[in-house]
Amino acid sequence: MTEAIVFKWTGNLTASRANLLGGLRFAEEIHDPVTAARVTFQLATLDALEANLGSAVRRLRKARVSAQTTGHSRTVMACLNEIANSVGRLMGNYRWAWDASQRALELPSTGGSRLLTAICKDSQAQLHLDHHNADTAEELVDEVLRLFDREGHSGDPYSPFLESLAKRGIIALLRGDHGQAVASLEHARDIQTRVGERLMLPDTLSHLALAYAGLRDPDRALATSTEALRLLAEIGHANLQPQRIFWHHFLILEKFNREPRLPFLRRAVEFIAAQAATLSQAQQARLRRDVPLNREILTAWECHGHACEPAASTLAS
Asked: Right CATH number for 113-223 from 3.10.580.10, 3.40.50.10490, 3.40.50.300, 1.25.40.10?
């Protein structure tokens, strides 16, 4: 499972899934429900990264119930945090996401570990960033970085500490402080590149490209955004919200009046459709209506007169 997690964070989801499925078979053969629950949780994270939200929800539910039955509270915490940071927010069910995050923080295992607390707080920061609540997000990010540093995990190659570093730049971007955003995001980019962390890097580069655009530097903005798209393609578009990276590229092209830009908006819509494909009609409606990013993308798509085209037919209404 350790090898599978490394494969995941370096963007090789195929190898990660193969390892996890082998581990799950072995855990079931030796009747080890604790390991089976941990592996099932990891498989759920891969499902979310590959836009199979329906399967991710089912696996998280199975892993959490099994972990609760066996008293493995850290796996329960991980499942709850995944709802907060992943499936709950991706589906636009923010009440579910917030409730899961709060319950994770209330678990005894979480309260006894600054590292686990930091992981949950980082997810809460992301929920605030989704709604552009920069001040509250900043308070949480500062707390997360202090906790990671005190726990001694700030140098771990696959630590959420790296996500929190990037969030500092995103917060500056939301405030229009493009110079500070560039400094923070370049710092996060350099560390992620050095440790070989490929899963977060496309998002960091995409936000960095927006910051360059804010400084009216079209060449660096487009080059950086193109690099984000290239890296995203290299890892098979393994990302919780790949539509964001295509959306940012579209926005940069639009800002500098470059063409062609509509294909990138189309791709963003297609990724939203892929996420919705495994959900019920009610869940699909929530996904397109209540996720701010998706709402922005679909509104732009409609404004370009493409609401009735096949790529958006199940989402735009």
From this structure: 1.25.40.10
